[in-house]
Task: structure prediction
Amino acid sequence: MRLLITGGCGFIGSAVVRHVLKSTQHQVLNYDKMTYAASELALETGGHHPRHKLVVADITDAAAVRQAFDEFQPEAVMHLAAESHVDRSIDGPADFVSTNVVGTFTLLAAARNYVAGLSAEGRAKFRFHHISTDEVFGALETGEPAFHEATAYDPRSPYSATKAASDHLVRAWYHTYGLPVIVSNTTNNYGPWQFPEKLIPLMIISAIEEKPLPVYGDGTNIRDWLFVEDHAKALMKLVETAQPGKTYCIGARQPRNNLDVVKAICRILDRKLPSPDGARERLIVFVRDRPGHDFRYEIDPSNAESYLNWTAEHDFE
Result:
């Protein structure tokens, strides 16, 4: 299969590329703008792989996107390029609207035009897989059932609003133009090569350096955690097998509140790298809560687990 992967040098995208190159014979065109959070090192290819090509370009650049489709002739698109950090979306939402909404529209328009020129067999095989977030569903309170594929959308941050808009655009291209799309929504990912503005790598680095460990509010906000390499395997199974028009929620059933996550990091580092000044939990400081901080996210992955014959292999700790 010829895969056009957007954002393939980002955190989740690079995990997908690594999985594809190590575990399949698929060819990859990696289309990435190479923003601050991207790294070619994350591909772990040593700078070259015969089944991988990197194109440095913006998904809002319609001419560059059309060229990528025309020259590579993909059999599937895995769309992971996105601005994703909630705090940055609060301070500067314009980049999120541009990349997440306009960029997705640009890809959809190019994909529609490209698919129209394929043979009947090519059109039947083609897939546009849009990778999204559980944050589009809003926030859960204690005791509420986990998000699932039929949960109503209720985005609360500029980031989640732009991802919700992109999800709706993708489904509109399926219903209006017949573009064969798949949508997946996932929980908070963690693992290698994550940019250290995110909670887990930020806390690890700060704890090693004996710096304060800032926790929003009282630390009771809950996130559902999924190891990025487990996610990559699920995404690959989806693009290979899923039927057009379907949505899948992907998670690992690993909810933890933020304070417990930070304390777990401290305990692990205390074992592996003891500090002469004592246990690292002393570094935890509670800071003013983030505006519009959603209380709880949790996904019910039952449908994806059943359809894909897949479950996450890694527990959180």
Remarks:
- Residues 94-116 form the longest helix (23 residues).
- The mean pLDDT is 97.
- DSSP finds ten helices and twelve strands in the chain.
- The chain has one domain: 2-193+226-254+296-308.
